[in-house]
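Recap for those who missed Tuesday's class. We walked through two folding examples back to back. For each one, the amino acid string is listed first and its predicted structure tokens come directly after. Nothing is annotated here on purpose, so try labeling regions yourself before you check the end of the notes.
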Amino acid sequence: MTKRKNETVEEYRKRRRVEQHKYYIGVGKDRERNSKLKRAYGITLEKYDAMLELQGGHCAVCDRVVNDNGKHLHVDHDHVTGKIRGILCSQHNSTIGYCDDDPLILLRLAEYLLNASKS
């Protein structure tokens, strides 16, 4: 983008910001997200979308389609092997993390809640 004839520097900068914003909202946002998914998990945005579609378009645990903050669901993965397990909302992804990815702790939590509700 170049400065137009009879255009002030301030007008040029404003026009440039608007154009950059349009690009980011369109192509740039998906490109950035695709790059982050590849870097962090080795998958493309298309693979993420396909995984989410296989789950019915929502968190693998609950029916949330987006997080409470309006952002995308998280890729859940094993921190030791790097293997992707599924797509989760931030609440359930964090819960697994707080339990150190240990299914026994999660089972104990479930038992605790069930027993507490009986009393």
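Example two. Treat it independently of the first, because the proteins are unrelated.
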Amino acid sequence: MERVTAEDAEKKSHEAFKQANIYSEEPLAGFEVASTRYLILVSRKRLSLPSNIMTNNVTYEYRNVAVEPDVPSIEARKPAAETR
């Protein structure tokens, strides 16, 4: 698994969207898979995420799993552009 960095978050977000869209076209995609899809980006620190996307009655929701996030007291001191 490749971790996402702040520098490549936009590119990886787009790749996740394309991959989920391909899976939705599979014949085994049931309603629970076809109506909402979660696009998981694994990163070292917390990322700013794109807005959810709705297309063809499907909602794509981005989620970030930060494996080494800053503690809230440190993150709160960062400028808004650096935080989620």
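Answers for example two:
The chain is about 30% helix and 25% strand.
The chain has a mean pLDDT of 82.
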